[in-house]
Amino acid sequence: MSSNPFNHSHFIGYINQVTPQYVKVHFPSSVLMKSFTFYGEELKGGLVGSYVVIEGEKYGFLGKILELSLPEKERLELSEKSFNTKEFHPTGKIEILLSFELFEPSNIDKGLNSLPMIGAKVFICSSEFIKGYFKGFGVKKEQQDKAPVIELGRLTYDKSTIVELSQQAIFGRHCAIVGTTGGGKSYTVSKLIEGMIENKSKAIIIDPTGEYSNFDINNEIASKPLILTNDAFFHYSNLTVSDLFVLLRPSGQVQSPKLMEAIKSLKILRILENNIDNDFITKPDENTYSIKITDVIREEIKVSNNTILKAGQLIRPFNRVYSKFLNQIEGLNSDFNIESLSFQLVKECINDVDFNNHHKWGGINNNHATNCISLILRVNNLINNPEFNKIFGFEKQKNDPSELINGINEFINGDLNILRIGFEQVSFDFQAREILANAVSKFLLELARDKRFQESPIVLFVDEAHQFLNKKVKDEYFETTDLSSFDSIAKECRKYGLFLCIATQMPRDIPNGTLSQIGTFISHRLINHQDKEAIANACSSANRDTLSFLPVLGSGEAILMGVDFPMPVMLKVEMPLIKPKSDTPLF
């Protein structure tokens, strides 16, 4: 970065008014506003959107011209002839973006603790000077030379100025790319992914429409895509019990407790099957498990057709196994044989205790069985639905090579940069997409909590994020449940090395809690008032003057704002080499 940004050949005027929100500049001559070339660099004069530097007493200031006008008297004299022969004295309104030390311009102050004085000189800002600022945003001074950067685009009002940004500044506090359809979101996502590939970083893309399938072609950078229902599935045992409840939607009074008991029983049966022949569990015959109660007493658990029998059976051996393997049974995952769930539900429709012998379960309760019929039907419909079978692999083994979790773990441990999880063939029925995306993000969340990403951080890209983030599930049988794994990632995973980058055309549909955790916004054209307000409320670094440009941005143009960016930057995102499949079909 140039040590002296105040080149007198770049002088354009003096400050003649100072307010807390902006300053005004007086141009001694309209000639100073014209563009000119200086040492091969074309410098814009007094154009709206041009960057300027202001020389103060202790600090220098970087600003952007927002308005230009002529005094009333000179406006009345304006004509084609006078404009070419007579000098005018325009004034301009400048937004102060940041301040810097006069003798060490790289030391910037995000807050405006001082303002320029009346009479301070204003100069055109050279592209080299401002380009150095972009690269240093969000990076500690000692890391600036080695911090990876992404060349995102060029300034909207000065195509010669390249905008290179630190990857840490873009993703370090999570990132949101927003804008209406056709604004350029998909191209921006592709450009960021290309930058990460150049920097040898890792990214996982949740792709709901197959837009980013062009990345799959290069197997030197991209892992084999995990396209759900096609060549990958998310095994049901990796779902949490709460995810199963969302899929099955039991009513709260009878069905929900019975479903919990059936799941617990099947988890215990899985433990019995996996722990035979030790001192605690033995299997004297095909339908019996013997449980050690004391050194001299053993009691039996009876099974039938891959279910545990309960009616009239002793309670104590069941509870004994439950107490010994409590952590496994109460764990979040669904490690049991789901094909037996409907049969086990029938076995659970019993009285809690035998009135003649309180050590045993009671007999069949026909009222409970009647109330659970609709739940049993939903379980059977889920398991026998071919679409859900493709998604959750009800008939497949957990260690199948095409299981999604195995693919994610292989990518994390490997050397490739990109993993695309394709949702393009997943059904929209029964909110399968939302539940599946939430389950995948929950798995990554648990990996992050185990500190798997601290040595090699990963960015999770979520396209069409409004489809997935913090969705609620509710119907006539089921209380409202939040699918909030993405929200948890935004709130707690920055310190664990898992970063979120969401792309959406409807920021108003993103929960406020998630938006408030986003540190970087790349905002393309926004027209809807609620969308603009959502961004304004979430992004403290943007003032109303900057946000007023949002409705008129062209395709590919964006405003970059964020915690690590002391000033908003208006830029044109460069075309990526690997383009997304987002073109509008022609009539």
Automatic annotation (TrEMBL):
- Which SUPFAM superfamilies does its entry note? P-loop containing nucleoside triphosphate hydrolases
Read off the lineage from the record. Answer: Bacteria, Pseudomonadati, Bacteroidota, Flavobacteriia, Flavobacteriales
Q: What is this protein called?
A: ATP-binding protein
| Residues in AAA+ ATPase domain copies | 171-533
Tell me the InterPro entries matching this sequence: AAA+_ATPase, HerA-like, HerA_C, HerA_central, P-loop_NTPase
Q: Which GO-annotated molecular functions does the record name?
A: ATP binding
Q: Name one Pfam family in it.
A: HerA_C
Task: Tell me the Gene3D superfamilies matching this sequence.
Answer: P-loop containing nucleotide triphosphate hydrolases (3.40.50.300)
Record the organism. Flavobacterium ponti
